[in-house]
Fold this sequence. Notes:
Layout: H1 2-27, H2 29-120, H3 158-181
Helix pairs in contact: 1-2, 2-3
Amino acid sequence: xxxxxxxxxxxxxVRRAAQGAFTLATRYPLQAALIVAVLALGWTxxxxxxxIGQRDAAVAGRKADRTAYTAAxxxxxxxxxxxxxxxxARYKAHAQEIDREHExxxxxxxxxxxxxxxxxxxxxxxxxxxxxxxxxxxxxxxxGVPANLPANYVPVAESDLRACAAATxxxxxxxxxxxxxxx
Length: 183
């Protein structure tokens, strides 16, 4: 067994080296302590150098990450502002279109009200007492209401009719605008 002889020889060498080191350490204790301290410092320095390298790599990585996410945030902010501007432009164009439609519909509503007023105006009776109507007099400003009007008839002032037409047109256009926002 040549392998066993080699192992025994190696073991013997290690044993003689350990005895020699022990003999030197007992003969020169301060120098041995100094050698052990230098070896320990070397080992510590090697470990510290490795740790410093790892720390520096980590710091550089964090700086790179910080730069990357700062750039990403700036890009996201730019994209958000562009999206906001596009949405505002779209809403502004939609609002202008709705305003134009509102003006057209308001003009139509006003002309419809004017026609309604002209067709349904309560007119004063020409002769007092004709057909049982109430005559108009200068003191009470009664236009003379015909007797054949229904009992639940309520006359409405022209200004009120115009205000109702304008409010209705506005409400319908506001509804159209609000429904258009979902598109």
